[in-house]
Amino acid sequence: YKKASTGQKRIAVLNERQEIIVRRILVRNEKKWCKIIYQNKKGKRCSGYIKLHPVTILSKVNLRLPQTTTIKLRVDARRLPTDMATRKGTLKKNQKVKILAVSIHNGETWYYVQYRRNGKTQRNYIKKENVKEPISAEQWRFERNLASFPDSYQSDLIQLYQAHPNWNFVPVYTGHSWDEALAAESKTGVNVITSVAPVNGTYGSWDAPFNYLSTAKGAYNWRTDKYTVFDGTKWYAATKEVIAYYMDPRNFLTEQGIYMFESMKYEPGVQDIKGVRAILKNSFMDGTFTVSNGKKKVTYDYAEVFMEAAEKSGVSPYFLAARSLMELGSGGSGSSSGKTGIYNFYNIGANDSKKGEAVSNGLKWAASGKSYMRPWTTPYKSIVGGAKYIQAHYVDQKQYTAYFQKFNVINEATLYWHQYETAVYAPFAEAMTKQKVYKTLRIDRQPLTFYIPVYAYMPEQQVSLPAPKGNTNCFIRSVKITDAKTGTQLNGRLSAKFQYNKMQYTLTVPRSVASVKISAKASSKFSTVTGKGVYTLRAKETKRVRLVCTAQSGDYRAYEIKIKRK
Predict the structure, then answer these.
(1) Model's pTM, two decimal places?
(2) pLDDT value, residue 551
(3) What is the DSSP string of 26-76?
């Protein structure tokens, strides 16, 4: 319409998908109108008014890696990325421009460029075909995906892209908040970590310090200083802070960690037997195994079997080999020994137990049923059949990376519980194995795809691991008070029975007791108690005795006993 009213003259009919410039939005008679610019059938630039309809707003992707190039031929620069927009000057042939952003619509690509004109810096739009060196397909894909990542992801992704320009980084929005996912993953026993600290007080590269072990209900007893073992002899529940670190994808946007996000799909042009052999090198799977087939014996090559498993399941042979190595160790385990006549190379069904029955649980599962080539009476059946199981139960269920197999945060049907393993650092451990092999064989130069999770309301900065600390238990388990001269037990005279979590007591003794001896035991063998010893008492006076328990970490707690002699 000529003006913002249906009662005005109708001057044109616009088609669906027709390009317009919206100059402003206004309200007339309680209805919204747009003042627009459009082209008529003769290509002439015109203006008019339309009712507010659904429109597709042009998007502009600002480049994090601006590129400098030159102009091919003389070209007009425009204020907006459309031929209808106002001309803002002319760029000459061979003039330098810096591409700052890209806009695409109606099948045409426009560059938002910066250049110098008449001694001033200007920024306007020109079409892609007008520059000598356009943005590469790889960079454009990267920039588009990068724009969908939160800012806190971007600097690390840029570094990875610059080192590997043919890699593809895809954001996967989980649809869940960070706090919700972390709370679910922090339930006791869902994520565990290995440690020798409860035994000898120390820690190492893969043995966690005390403050990485959960002290939540069901995971720890403060009075006895006993941590609940969730599998084997040294797998304990991890703290929420540690789980947060391994869940935060931003911590692993590195040359080593990125492989936990690699697609698990088999890509024949990228993955080959050389890579599998490199992963298995120096392990018990570096070679062959023999299977009896009636009177005949058949020899299999481990690497060839993993390749066959990939072809039959569609799962990456590198993932399968790395997963087996992670589960079994370089020397193998009870799952691969064949002592029971059953094998389980991926430890499927090897659920944790307080008695350390994970391996036997997995072997029971491998011996039962007829699906996925079970029972797995040979390594061949276990490797190939297990790969088919992983495809059906994980890859096809949206858990198509090592990260999503450990932290199931996208499959709504089995959210937070259908998880392959409980070791909190398992995806990173597998990623490190892959990185070494990929670098040696130059697989890292291939066009790999990584699916990286993004949560809503994430912390502004990536989560850090807590600084290692010693045992924090500074409770006293028991106190013994006796007459220093006769040895008579006086605990029964305490105002209340001694409890590790009660800090204050009173004690009244007969006039005949001139001194008392106080001894105490800490809950933890790594803690010390001061204040023990013999105390002289004066008649009708109250002595305050302070017992201080100091933990290995330096934390301390004071208990007070007021002793009154009659």
Answers:
(1) 0.81
(2) 97
(3) EEETTEEEEEEEEE-TT--EEEEEEE-----PPPEEEEEEEEEEEBSS-EE
